[in-house]
Amino acid sequence: MRSYKSLNNLVGWLVFALATVVFLMTLEPTASFWDCGEFIACSYKLLVPHPPGAPTFLLLGRLFSLLSFGDVTKVSVLVNSLSALSSSFTVLFLFWTITMLAKKLVLHRPGMHDDRQLEPTFGQTLLILGAGAVGALAYAFSDSFWFNAEEAEVYAMSSLCTAAVVWLMLKWENRADEADSDRWLVLIAYVIGLSIGVHLLNLLAIPALGFIYYYRRTQNPTMWGGIITLVVSSLIVGLILAGIIPGLPTLAGAFEVFFVNTIGLPFNWGIIIFLLLFVGLIWFGFRQSFQRRNRLLNTAMLSFVFILIGYSSYLIVPIRSSYHPTINENDPEDVLSFVSYLKREQYGDRPLLYGPQFNAQPTAQTEGAPRYVRQGDKYVVAEYRPVLEYRAEDKMLLPRLYSNDPLHLYNYKKWVDIQEGVKPTMGQNLAFLFKYQMGHMFWRYFMWNYVGREGDLQQSGILWGSADGNGLPERVADSPARNAFFALPLMLGLLGLFFHIRRDGRNAFIVGLLFLFTGLAIVLYLNQPPIEPRERDYTFAGATFAFAIWIGLGVLALAELLKSVLKADTTRAGVVTLAGLVVPGIMVTQGWNDHDRSDRYLSVDSAKNLLNSCAPNAILFTNGDNDTFPLWYAQEVEGVRTDVRVAVLSYLNTDWYIDQMKRRSYKSAPLPISMESKDYKQGTNDYLPYAENPAVQEVDVRQFMQLVEANSPLLQVSYGEGKPLLSFPSRKFYLPIDTAAVLKTGIIPADRRAQLVPRMEWTVGKSAIEKKSLVILDILATNNWKRPVYFSSTVDSRDFMGLQPYFQLEGMAYRILPARDPNYDPSGGRQADDGYVELDLMYEKLMKTFAYRGLDNPGIFYDENNLRFPANYRDKFSRLADALLMAGDKVRAKKVLDKAFEVMPDKAIPYDYYVPQFIPALVAVGDTKRANEIMDTMIGRAERGLAYYSTHNQALFDQEFQTYLLSLDSIGRAAEAIGDRARAERAIKLLQQYYNPRQ
């Protein structure tokens, strides 16, 4: 018979293999939305992603990408598999963690001691291994963890780091009496150092590790000893978070500025002197440990050095940045910009322990920390970061209701009864903490994993019962993400928790501490606003990891309960193991269809379609992660349309990004930007307010840019004691057009030459022009129509600057042309109608060029975020069909309509807000049956959805509620347009039933 050790290893690897097979079978084959496209591109070419970066992840991703052997289409799946394998190893370490804790309980040896030599009986072994398998597999198939395993994001590897340090600490605990046991502590320090280059969540495991150390090294632990341990371990977390990660580079930067500016040494000598002193201090620390024969000091010094060795992966950031790669966010090529990168200064901060509440008005603005840049042979202050001062009575402890953003204020009111203009009470402040931040944003996510989930809509709640969807909106009832676990994982985990507390209080406390610090402590630290762009459940994977330990130990509790019924250890262990495996069995069967991404190509296809919408050598303005990161992946990894320069509007508000846009990138020449660095450096022309000058009725864009570059007094206005700002004197802009030269370029289609204008005129509706808008104006003034300029059709219309009359819709992008759209109706107010539809070009793009892989497959799960992009396709198909009908081309219009519903049928991509636009066109081509089916289906869904949401937490789902109302309005107007009075009346009556109470 095999020994316990060999069986423990064997079963652990079998659990690992099972998890690996599942994760690889359900793996996304390409770059999914959000940060994944960026991380895959940056891994493949070791580029610089958004702060604070993830260099350890990128280096490992680069190694995995080499296995593609030149086949760039395999890069994404290989980097995704890094997350899959990280998750599998997390499951493996969790298995061994559970078996180490379970062995203490089964052998009735609680606490901290070496039990390696104790050999359980076969029945005991089966029980221990069963506990490990149930707990590890329950975590493997939990909702958030499985989601993280399928894509190239940092959270899977972060979970691996947490699992590894917990397992290593328990390994040390079994070997603490050996002379060389401290090597395990040094290895833990190295893993922690590496984890800094992945994500900082791993650091929150340190307090739990501190208590393992304290209990193992102390014969008679006391309450005060525990308090000191908690304080010291928390200080270690703070030391790493503030002292090592940003602290050391900040100190190095201070040395650099002092020795260059004050002493007069060349650049980088301050860093060299700092490094020499720092290495000297480390040598002194080691020397003291040897002279005093102090083992604790020596171990602490070794751990510190190995944390630094792991942390050294961050050196890749300034090294790669100095080569000016194509993705180089924040340009952190020197120590000063590197510090800003590490501190994530571009994202701002949130008050945590003490700060202003949402009604607080700043009383003053003072100069904060300086931002230095190189100029000549010195560092000069580019700007002082502004610091707002508030009255003491406008501040409060633990401020949760802090944001004055109108959207945030609107959403605060969904959770607490506050009034604008009235300072919130501490009770209201804490109510938001407990109801929203802890209740909705932590406990709801936790219950998703171990109780059940209602669906994939944002704000979806907990599913306590079965998955039956009677009475629910179809979008919820039929969602593959509607997973019912019948609370079995939760109940088994609670059973394990109580059993653990009763049998081994100290180890139960350690697991509980891990749960609290990786769960509720994160809630306090994040101080989340009342609305997020997407669900944030991935943040709390550490807490679900800790609870999975108790799920495993719940198997031991079941065995204890059955002890009087089943006397034989082996029989009892087999029965409870099989019963326990029902839990992960239910989880994997319920979760498979919504976690299986094996045939999903939407994100990359949408990126390629957007790039292929553009003419050669184009400039494409985009906005937002899901707009941009798949484009970066397509260009950087697969080399698709590298002649198109993607310009991210939000980044164009920064000087470093404008600098990058003025450099060549692959086949794309530098952007035609005439402004020099002095005109757009941070702190200069960040925004230009509107200051009306009655003498100036309209503004010539070229003259305006010349005045901006000259910092002309004609544009300067003063506000208070600050330096004067440049402004714009009129909201009306114009750009003279050399029509003869434009005609020679051939950019105006033959059928639009009569629409060519000698002067483009438009109105900017903003009260201030941001730097990104200034760049757009500069390009219009400088480009002279040499390069095509586009906006992605998903860009917020507020960033169009009123240029819509000159948009031409080409595929998924709007091209700016000096030809006025005769059909443009500014009173329509709908972005969907922007852009002149150039028939032949649009037909070629939508019908022949674009890829729609998998959008016709009802077996592929597209969650809420994914479904936004097919909606854009439908809008463009509808626009093209309408334009063809207006041109009298009914044959091609019918082909377009057929194609739209062929590639995106309702069974795969449910009808959305844009579908009612098809109804008049369908009737016009003789497809009244489909038009009626659309109206009946959507009215029925709206009726069911409105009835449900009007009585079930409507405030949380107001977006869905409003979408149903807008759809009914569209259906009503479409039905009236085709003369279907019955359906029109039904839609309008239903609309009025639910619309009026919301007035």
Automatic annotation (TrEMBL):
Regions crossing the membrane: 7-27, 53-70, 82-102, 122-142, 154-172, 184-215, 227-245, 265-284, 296-317, 484-501, 508-526, 538-561, 573-592
An example molecular function term from Gene Ontology annotations: transferase activity
UniProt entry keywords in alphabetical sequence: Membrane, Transferase, Transmembrane, Transmembrane helix
Source organism superkingdom: Bacteria
Pfam families documented for this protein: TMEM260-like
InterPro entries: GT117_domain-containing, TMEM260-like
PANTHER family: TRANSMEMBRANE PROTEIN 260
Protein name: Glycosyltransferase
Species of provenance: Hymenobacter amundsenii
Classification of source organism: Bacteria, Pseudomonadati, Bacteroidota, Cytophagia, Cytophagales
